[in-house]
């Protein structure tokens, strides 16, 4: 099944008639999941053309790499380049319906909230509204910019550390210290670390602290040494972003997943979070909504799926990626605006959370 035109052969520019027939084949296949015949195109589209004429055009489109024929007696299905052409210049651009926009805004929250919960809601909304898999790559807390540090005494020699980033994300951990530290000393240490390290990434702050510990140990007073020792343990946090996956079961009813081997590959892919994050994080390299189909990426090629993704963040600074993953036979005219709107809505919701909590 040819996925692109033979580079040695010059492909003619498609005529308006060619483009309209290709558009109808894509639209019909997306709805039916069955190879499309010239007769079905003639019935569904008001083209004023006979089935024989449409069949000849479809044969040309197959020769040029836009259509493929799974079986000699079957109709034809769109290829990867057909979907890309459909997205770029054939599909009717739609807005997200008003009710969906309200639904998304309501579920992401109208005011300050928990960023982790907001992102979890976003992945669920992506899946729920598209009936595909919703993905959200969450920021690495180690790479976020530190806003404040707070130490709270617990029982005995245990201290709770709370790190808050300027992105609104928090990391908490319990540290056991060699001796009981009075609350007022913990407050002073918290203030010192916040005043001196806010504005640096958490990874950078820890590196600076370790250098101080190595270079200035002899000159440190007890309070500073204690502050640095506490901070060293507090900033030992996992590195690397995470990923939220929602709605994998939504795909099980799709005819593309009738093959149990393909289902197994899909769930293996979702289980390998590190690899999934690595692939999805490449979306950060470009702006706007991007679409990968089939052989366009390792992820979509392995599953023969499509990924529609965009970034979310704060101002010009991206924090992560979100998107919809599913069989290439998806309603791009609905999915692309949905991903775009959800990226903007998630950015706004996080901005409100950040503003309410920190600024």
Q: How would you sum up the major sheet? A: 5 strands, antiparallel
Structural shape: elongated
What is the terminal separation in angstroms? 56 Å
CATH superfamily of the largest domain: GAF domain
From the 3D structure, determine the CATH topology of the largest domain.
Beta-Lactamase
> What is the alpha-carbon Rg in Å?
27 Å
- Category by helix and strand content: alpha+beta
Provide the helix percentage. 40-55%
Would you tell me the overall average pLDDT? Answer: 83
Please give the number of β-strands. Answer: 10
Class of the largest domain in CATH?
Alpha Beta
Give the spatial strand order of the biggest sheet.
7-3-10-9-8
Tally of DSSP helical segments: 13
| Low-pLDDT sequence parts | 1-9, 355-359
User: Percent of residues in beta strands?
Assistant: 15-25%
How many structural domains are formed by the residues? 3
Helix-strand string: HHHEEHHHEEEEHHHEHHEHEEH
- CATH architectural type of the largest domain: 2-Layer Sandwich
Overall description:
The protein is an alpha+beta fold and 359 residues long. The protein has three domains: 16-90, Winged helix-like DNA-binding domain superfamily/Winged helix DNA-binding domain (Arc Repressor Mutant, subunit A), CATH 1.10.10; 98-139 and 241-357, Beta-Lactamase (2-Layer Sandwich); 142-234, Enolase-like, domain 1 (2-Layer Sandwich). The protein contains 13 helices and ten strands. It has helices at residues 16-32, 38-44, 51-63, 80-90, 98-108, 115-130, 183-197, 202-215, 222-234, 260-271, 273-280, 298-303, 332-357, and strands at residues 67-68, 77-78, 133-138, 146-153, 158-165, 170-176, 242-246, 290-293, 305-314, 317-327. Strands 7-3-10-9-8 form a five-stranded antiparallel sheet, with helices on both faces. α2 packs across α3, α5 packs parallel to α13 (332-357) and α6 packs antiparallel against α13 (332-357). It starts with 15 loop residues before the first helix and ends with a helix.
